[in-house]
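User: Teach me something about this protein's shape.
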Amino acid sequence: MKIVSQVQEEEVIAEFLFAEINSDRFKEGILNALGDHDLDLIIKPNLNNQAENQIRRNILGQTRGFSRNTDLFENFPTEVKWYKAFFDRQDLNEVMYINYSYWNQLSSNTRLPLQASKNIMNQIEVFGISNQGFLTST
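Assistant: First, the predicted structure itself:
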């Protein structure tokens, strides 16, 4: 792994929401939380605008539990240093999913993406959620 740079939490939040706005599973929740705010808040974030950053933080909190110790971010540390990094193929064998019920189940409680991919290819679904999104994104 090669660390490129440290990044601010605002950038992580913006990237997280940008990824999930394109997800069939999470898009509707984000749009509902966005309310009357323009979609550009997520599609073209201005990280220098503190008001926009706070709105994005609130949206991620409302939809995924960020800074609220719930949902995906239950038991997530409050002090985190974020980094942008490049991974070699071999590094990916050591990456683990966040400790979250969906990923735990999908990976047979290993938290390893390699195991999850085997389960996906074997058509093992978790919590009634289709794996089609994984299969069509490759």
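Now, about its shape. The mean pLDDT is 94. The CA atoms of residues 18 and 42 lie 6 Å apart. If you'd like, I can walk through any region in more detail.
User: That's plenty for now, thanks!
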